[in-house]
Amino acid sequence: xxxxxxxxxxxxxxxxxxxxxxxxxxxxxxxxxxxxxxxxxxxxxxxxxxxxxxxxxxxxxxxxxxxxxxxxxxxxxxxxxxxxxxxxxxxxxxxxxxxxxxxxxxxxxxxxxxxxxxxxxxxxxxxxxxxxxxxxxxxxxxxxxxxxxxxxxxxxxxxxxxxxxxxxxxxxxxxxxxxxxxxxxxxxxxxxxxxxxxxxxxxxxxxxxxxxxxxxxxxxxxxxxxxxxxxxxxxxxxxxxxxxxxxxxxxxxxxxxxxxxxxxxxxxxxxxxxxxxxxxxxxxxxxxxxxxxxxxxxxxxxxxxxxxxxxxxxxxxxxxxxxxxxxxxxxxxxxxxxxxxxxxxxxxxxxxxxxxxxxxxxxxxxxxxxxxxxxxxxxxxxxxxxxxxxxxxxxxxxxxxxxxxxxxxxxxxxxxxxxxxxxxxxxxxxxxxxxxxxxxxxxxxxxxxxxxxxxxxxxxxxxxxxxxxxxxxxxxxxxxxxxxxxxxxxxxxxxxxxxxxxxxxxxxxxxxxxxxxxxxxxxxxxxxxxxxxx
Length: 534
Hints:
The structure is a single chain. 70% of the residues lie in helices and 0% in strands. It has helices at residues 85-88, 99-125, 145-169, 171-196, 199-219, 223-239, 243-271, 277-315, 324-333, 337-366, 370-404, 408-422, 424-430, 433-459, 470-505, 507-513, 515-524, 526-533. The longest helix has 39 residues, at 277-315. The model is unreliable at 1-73 and 129-142 (pLDDT under 50). It is a multi-pass membrane protein. The chain crosses the membrane at residues 99-120, 146-167, 174-194, 200-219, 240-261, 281-298, 332-350, 370-390, 432-456, 468-488.
């Protein structure tokens, strides 16, 4: 299906002003006035009390009083042959925002590299006898630990890529199949773990399955709208930019870093196997945090890149900017590098705490500590809610950053105010693609965890004869499956997020340039869309 029509567009240049990116100091300072007269598109709205333009803008920005009906003006499209992404979303006097966070990110990655070098050196210096699948009495690279993580990485890559390809091929059935398969896998693996004697893992997976049944039943009425948005995002990805290439390359980078993290992890166990337990725990906590930070940074870099592609389609469907993907990626890796590092730091810290709770909960279950198991379960649920809120804000803030190169804090504030004042939160909350992709990542996590468990069970390595490391290996196997799949699904979910943010910035564009999508949104959410259109 297509979401473009032949009429309308940016066929002419505004008479008085070439719009640059939105003025930073104006933001969303006043509520949206539904009854306010809308500006004629392609012309400059006239206001009284306009102020001089700051030095980093081409022309005078819209004044504070009164605010324009649609803030964040769309890019100028002159229908020229060499119309590029930088022409569409101009950044006058570019600045490296939040540079301190970018430097901190590089320093953290430098620490990871140093620890990895030390751990791998320990492997090369250690006695490599009795290595392989069954041998080895230590938890390290000279045992089968590296092999089980390699299998988990391979499975995560194959299933993650197959999952996103299934969404591309069967978007309408994708949501139903994802939910049903996830419930079936959670319950089946939970029953198997209990039957096999790993009661703590079985209870956790059964709880996941029961909760998913409840959530999925409550989502039924929202599935048609979500399927429509998924089809829209996939149609754009097929025709514009290099969205699928971004998804694939992101998955490859995520896989490579996951392999690096895995060998570093088991290398630390080699180096500190017999002593320095506190040092070992501290270093493992650090590399786990670094892994989360890199994964989140990679995910949001992909998100920012793809947001540039979808925004180019939204604002300029008849003259799609050239080199949109490359230019958007270049901006993400330069001027917005620090902002992406800052936003990903917040979610990485929360995820690292969740992982520690997960390991502690699994260990408490293995030790039959029911009280601690319940405490860590509750704490993990609380952290999950906090992570959801942080990720929700980040998704839309980074769309703003992708187009206009603003600092992270300002982008988060402006975008959040826009979402609330325009009523876009109703559309966002009813779109299930974020939760569906999350449960899809969990589904891959179930399978990588099961593979790790079966591998340990049937190879029965010497170091794990008493099951001391089963919980740790299963927890990290689940982590690998989820993170790799999340990277694969980021581009499509980013496209849907960008559409929501763009319709909040200027719904008139959707009404004129993408009427089929507009009509679907009006049919589903007449109050919200009529309020947007005025």
